[in-house]
Amino acid sequence: MIRALWTSASGMQAQQTNLDVISHNIANVNTVGFKRSRANFEDLIYQNLKDPGVMSSNETRVPSGIQIGLGVKLSDVTKIFTQGSLMKTDKQLDIAIQGEGFFKIELPGGGEAYTRAGNFQIDNEGYVVTPNGYRLSPNIQITAPETLISLDISPNGKVYAVRNEGGQETVEELTDIKLYKFINPTGLKAIGENLFVRTEASGEAIEGDPNTDGFGKLAQGFLEASNVNIVEEMVNLIVAQRAYEINSKGIITADEMLRTVATLKG
């Protein structure tokens, strides 16, 4: 059987996966804090018909040998954690991170997750939560909402509640916002809802204050857009489509060669 049939088939399967990754990136172009992914591939094993360097005579060696590759496979899908652009919203609980760092989120049932999406809200108990109601950690609770004028969040994570108490304006300092880094953020596991959880590959979360030691500073009234470049993704889409098409040509050509052999008469 001609090797090209299965080699080209592996190429088509690889491009199908590539298309899945690119489509996911494009689908999330407007998702707050979304980080694009990139599919990486590696060549399959080789059939060594003649190893490089074997003796071709008592005095000479084969310089390159004969090695025939058997196709391609997916090696990994990498998250690209580059900074997304900032979108001005003027909403006081929209917080963007400029730099590295993640917000920590408390999951239902006691787990922890991390996110770059800073589109927070206040729940019925006054806690700062994600759009799905998961609390920001450390918890920030806003009490006496009837006296609250505004919330001020500084670039270094200080949260202040400005109140009107008895006709006088007062400022109350609430719990600070902390940020978290990982030695290998690409090792984080994406679980949807703009959340990641730590793994053995990511390492432990490192806690720090915003605007210190490279944790990134906070920008109140802004959201971080996805880092998807739609033009780049469209080009990747075209390249994937052409690669898929060329691989299918390989299968057609191999089939035509087999048909030619089958019609030969002795």
Which strands sit side by side, in order, in the main sheet? 8-7-11
- Measured as a percent range, the helix fraction is 10-25%
Q: In terms of per-residue confidence, which ranges show pLDDT below 50 for 5 or more consecutive residues?
A: none
What structural class is derived from the secondary structure elements? Answer: alpha+beta
The geometry reads as elongated
- Please describe the biggest sheet, giving its number of strands, its sense, and whether it closes into a barrel: 3 strands, antiparallel
Number of helices: 2
Total beta-strand segments:
20
| Mean of all residue-level pLDDT scores | 95
Terminal Cα separation, in Å?
Answer: 20 Å
Radius of gyration over alpha carbons? Answer: 27 Å
**SSE order, one letter for each helix or strand:** HEEEEEEEEEEEEEEEEEEEEH
Strand content: 25-35%
Task: Indicate the topology.
Elements lengths: L2 H25 L9 E7 L2 E5 L15 E4 L2 E8 L6 E3 L6 E4 L4 E4 L5 E4 L5 E2 L5 E2 L6 E2 L10 E6 L5 E7 L2 E6 L5 E3 L7 E4 L2 E3 L8 E3 L8 E4 L1 E3 L5 H33 L4
Antiparallel strand pairs: 1-4, 2-3, 5-20, 6-19, 7-8, 7-11, 9-10, 12-13, 13-14, 15-18, 16-17
Helix pairs in contact: 1-2
Quick structural gist:
This protein is of the alpha+beta class and 266 residues long. The protein is built from two helices and 20 strands.
What would you say this structure looks like, in words?
Helix 1 runs antiparallel to helix 2. A hairpin with a 5-residue loop joins strand 9 and strand 10. The model has no long low-confidence stretch (mean pLDDT 95). 23% of the residues are buried. Helix content is 22%, strand content 32%. It has 2 helices and 20 strands. It has 266 residues and is of the alpha+beta class. Strands 8-7-11 form a 3-stranded antiparallel β-sheet, with no helix packed on it.
